[in-house]
Amino acid sequence: MADIIAETDRLILRTIEEGDAARQDRLLNTPAVMARLGGVKELHEIEAKHAKAMAMYAREGFSFLFMIEKSSGEMVGHCGIKRVDNPLAPNVGDHEIGWLVREDRWRRGYAEEAMRAVLDWAFTRIHAPHVVALTSEANIGSWKLMQKLGMVRREDLDFTDPAFPAEDNPTIQYSLTQEQWESSQ
Description:
- There is one protein chain.
- By secondary structure, the chain is an alpha+beta fold.
- 31% of the residues lie in helices and 25% in strands.
- The protein has 5 helices and 8 strands; from the N terminus they run ββααβββαβαββα.
- It has helices spanning 20-27, 43-60, 110-125, 140-148, 178-183; strands at 4-7, 11-15, 64-69, 75-83, 95-101, 130-136, 152-153, 171-177.
- An 8-stranded mixed sheet has the order 1-2-3-4-5-6-8-7, with helices on both faces.
- Helix 1 (20-27) crosses helix 2 (43-60).
- The mean pLDDT is 93.
- Residues 11-171 form the N-acetyltransferase domain.
- This is GNAT family N-acetyltransferase.
- GO terms for molecular function: acyltransferase activity, transferring groups other than amino-acyl groups.
- Pfam families: Acetyltransf_3.
């Protein structure tokens, strides 16, 4: 049974559970949604990520979550907290936030709504001292939301990842400290 981590006006944020991979594959794993995230994944890759997320939640009390639209009961996105795990990043182990929203729900404010709840979870319940978010300069929507959330560009944390195409390099990072977040509340 999934745990409900947060509720917003329009969303329920719940933990990943067995059987969610096929639904994620169908609803979120599209060329448009995955364009800046390394491309469409194979089902076994999604299943492996889910297993990792469920283990992280059991071990550390946080992970990625599904965004469930209250009005329809449908999965509309994926968001949450994990550890920076790219070995090329200079800040491996930091709390990393992230999100994606299915294409037919873009431009409705779901990512911002979900991420405000995730930041509250990170700072009030997990007690993260700071969070980071990773993207590329080409992913304008992503870094604009990071700025809207009060995050600050951290050029000192940029790194190149040869697994991504040239247009998505370097990986850039934004961060937000608990103090910065508290002062904006």
